TrEMBL record:
Membrane topology (UniProt): Multi-pass membrane protein
Keyword Ubl conjugation carried by entry: yes
Species of provenance: Alligator sinensis (Chinese alligator)
SMART domains: CBS
Membrane-spanning parts: 83-103, 160-182, 216-235, 241-257, 269-293, 343-362, 382-399, 454-475, 481-500
Catalysed reaction equations from the record: 2 chloride(in) + H(+)(out) = 2 chloride(out) + H(+)(in)
CBS domain ranges (all copies): 613-677, 703-769
Protein name: Chloride channel protein
């Protein structure tokens, strides 16, 4: 988005007093010499004026720069103003990293609490409880200090009753956690539900949603995110962590006046906060910056790029220092594959990309259809009941299968793992000949009973994950989509990888294997297939490309696998785009009716500004305010009878020559303050938007001058301007509205909502789905 310099009003704005009277006329009242609280701000569910906000910031910066030469104190103020941005990034990184560490530690403990408790201290999770336990390596997941519920309650882990008791406790804990989560969201912070990324993306485009990034939302989202993840629902904490980080950024902005009073500057900070959120979610500072740039940010200048990277680094290292032993290591799923991939393996990698694109398109359509239906079904009208039902179904179906009973992050880590000599999981139960082992490298081997058992368990887990995630995403609890999508892809990738591995083992003499995979060689790495499949499914759902590959690289530490990752990510995007152009976040933006103008889509229809502007041919005339002939009462009648966010100011109704544009909110605040604080302002007082006014008889009421709240340089286009150009102007300048003229005379107005409705209509979509301006 490119923001031009808005023209400044250099005319003399005020008359000076002389002996209690004004020079020129004694009736001119101009009380706006000092800015009024509220003037220049925006109402809830409205779009900011990017051009005006950037113009204000440039004026503020010029004033500080000019004053810095006058005194030492002014110079110090100038330096502190320049440094405040970096200080704010430091605070955002520290707060986002600290909260992410708290969420990570708490979620691990409460997830393990569903299965048992530590005798050394109930606050320890399973891993920390058994950290120093002296147990054989193959039994490293059990220790004397950890007690599962059946062992704690009835003293045994064997038998049907012990299994049923553990099953019951697992479901009860899951229901309790989800009940607490949805109750807190419903009762204290309704904005704390969902992923938050669609709303963050809309806010960064200039939309105002009061309270969405407030302190109550931050507190409740932090608490309920732990509860939702611990309940075992098919969701992740990665998307909501972006919301948490942006809440931190928004709250900390109030410490610095240049960010507190300027909506455009605040959105630069929120872009950096989003990068910090992804950084703490995945341990991927570079990927976080690219995600913010590619996916969520609307205005991203170069200085924001470097500040985002700084905030992301601080957040990642803060998280690591708080929880050095959990999944918050430098990489979330560290992998160490011992076999390089072969060029012929690009074929199955591309097949994984095709699956990822198909899964992404299927998920988006199904989830959006369910979210629409949710508004009309009983479950939708009763969010607490919906969450409890979905949690109960998830827990009941998940417990019998060890791959769905474990947390999704642990499942992905298991699937990414390359089997070594010391691995004892079912996925690594091969028929081995250790005489042929060289170091850590194991040759391709025949699958044993454990591998076959794991394959059908993973197939069942895949079916559950595919369908239950559709109903989970969008419920009234914090719910991220990154980890569930990666889990679906990782399962499919591991299944395909094991299939390729066994194919190469039993048919190494086939032409496709003969050149690079001889008998007894370590050729196929199933864990690599799982990693590529995870990237493919995540890309199919979100339509991420470059940022996805970088995140996966930082996530796993596998630099040499960028080409397979890129091949799968690009294929999944192409396939998904061929079915539907929208990613999941854009689809939810459109579902909620937010006024988001997508910068990536092309508008190629041959329509003109006159086809979109209001008023239309059979509509009432455009509501305008004249520059020097309307009274306070006339303007108040217009304000009360209309709901427009602003009004064009013209010379007269007859000429319709444009003077400027005034915002509704500024008018209301200015008139209310004039009535309260200035004598002589009554309903019959004339409002002037001009530099000078003619002298009036002494008996006339005082006049009210409001030129200082008038935008003297509103953007205008002619009625014959192609809508392709108009849409481009709205995208690149971030406009709220554009006035339409013909030969200098005002004809109509085009708002951002009008543009979005027109785009929807041209795409054969419902234009009434755009709810806000």
């Amino acid at each position: 988005m490119v923001l031009p310099e808005r023209g400044k009003n250099t005319s003399e704005e005020f008359y000076s007093y002389n002996g209690g009277e004004m020079n020129g006329t004694s009736k001119m009242m101009d009380f706006l010499e000092e800015p009024l609280p509220g003037v220049g701000t925006y109402e809830d569910f409205n779009t900011i004026d990017w051009v005006r906000e950037k113009s204000r910031d440039r004026d503020r910066h010029r004033e500080i720069t000019s004053k810095s030469k006058e005194s030492t104190w002014a110079l110090i103020h100038s330096v502190s103003d320049a440094f405040s941005g970096w200080l704010l990034m430091l605070l955002i990184g520290l707060s986002a990293g600290s909260l992410a560490g708290l969420i990570d530690i708490s979620a691990h403990w409460m997830t393990d609490l569903k299965e048992g408790v530590c005798l050394k201290g109930f606050w320890l999770n399973h891993e920390h409880c058994c950290w120093k336990a002296e147990t054989p390596f193959e039994n490293r997941d059990t220790c004397s200090d950890w007690r599962i519920w059946s062992q704690l309650i009835i003293g045994t882990t064997e038998g049907a009753f012990a299994y049923i008791l553990n099953y019951f406790m697992y479901v009860i804990w899951a229901l309790l956690f989800s009940l607490l989560a949805v109750s807190l969201v419903k009762g204290f912070a309704p904005y704390a539900c969902g992923s938050g990324i669609p709303e963050i993306k809309t806010i960064l485009s200039g939309f105002i949603i009061r309270g969405y990034l407030g302190k109550w939302t931050l507190i409740i989202k932090t608490i309920t995110l732990v509860l939702a993840v611990s309940s075992g629902l098919s969701l992740g904490k990665e998307g909501p962590l972006v919301h948490v980080a942006c809440c931190c950024g928004n709250i900390l902005c109030h410490l610095f006046i240049k960010y507190r009073k300027n909506e455009a500057k605040r959105r630069e900070v929120l872009s950096a906060a989003a990068a910090a959120g992804v950084s703490v979610a995945f341990g991927a500072p570079i990927g976080g910056v690219l995600f913010s740039l590619e996916e969520v940010s609307y205005y991203f200048p170069l200085k924001t790029l470097w500040r985002s990277f700084f905030a992301a680094l601080v957040a990642a290292f803060t998280l690591r220092s708080i929880n050095p032993f959990g999944n918050s290591r430098l990489v979330l799923f560290y992998v160490e594959f011992h076999t390089p991939w072969h060029l012929l393996e690009l074929v199955p990698f591309i097949l994984l990309g095709i699956f990822g694109g198909l899964w992404g398109a299927f998920f988006i359509r199904s989830n959006i259809a369910w979210c629409r239906r949710r508004k009309t079904t009983k479950l939708g009208r009763y969010p607490v009941l919906e969450v409890l039902v979905v949690t109960a179904v998830t827990a009941i179906l998940a417990f019998p299968n060890e791959y769905t009973r474990m947390s999704t992050s642990e499942l992905i880590s298991e699937l990414f793992n390359d089997c070594g000599i010391l691995d004892y999981s079912k996925l690594c139960e091969y028929v081995s000949d250790f005489n042929s082992t060289k170091g850590d490298d194991l040759p391709d081997r025949a699958a044993g009973p454990g591998v076959y058992t794991a394959m059908w368990q993973l197939a069942l887990a895949l079916i559950l994950k595919v369908f239950i995630t559709i109903f989970t995403f969008g419920m009234k609890v914090p719910s991220g989509l990154f980890i569930p999508s990666m889990a679906v892809g990782a399962i499919v990738g591991r299944l395909l990888g094991v299939g390729m591995e066994q194919l190469a083992y039993y048919h190494h003499d086939w032409t496709i294997f003969s050149g690079w995979c001889s008998q007894g060689a370590d050729c196929i790495t199933p864990g690599l297939y799982a990693m590529v499949g995870a990237a493919a499914c995540l890309g199919g759902v979100t339509r991420m490309t470059v940022s996805l590959v970088v995140i996966m690289f930082e996530l796993t530490g596998g630099l040499e696998y960028i080409v397979p990752l890129m091949a799968a990510a690009m294929t999944s995007k192409w396939v998904a785009d061929a079915i539907g152009r929208e990613g999941i976040y854009d689809a939810h933006i459109r579902l909620n009716g937010y006024p988001f103008l997508e910068a990536k889509e092309e508008f190629s229809h041959k329509t003109l500004a006159m086809d979109v502007m209001r008023p239309r041919r059979n509509d009432p005339p455009l509501t305008v305010i004249t520059q020097d002939s309307m009274t306070v009462e006339d303007v108040e009648v217009i304000i009360n009878e209309t709901t427009y966010s602003g009004y064009p100011v013209v010379v007269s109704r007859e000429s319709q020559r444009l003077v400027g544009f005034v915002l509704r909110r500024d008018l209301i605040i200015s008139i209310e303050n004039a009535r309260k604080k200035q004598d002589g302002i009554v309903s019959t007082s004339i409002i002037y938007f001009t530099d000078h006014s003619p002298p009036l008889p002494p008996s006339s009421p005082s006049m009210l001058k409001l030129r200082s709240i008038l935008d003297l340089s509103p953007f205008t286009v002619t009625d014959q301007t192609p809508m392709e150009i108009v849409v481009d102007i709205f995208r690149k300048l971030g406009l709220r509205q554009c006035l339409v003229t013909h030969n200098g005379k005002l004809l109509g107005i085009i708002t951002k909502k009008d543009v979005l409705k027109h785009i929807a209509q041209m795409a054969n979509q419902d234009p009434d789905s755009i709810l806000f301006n």
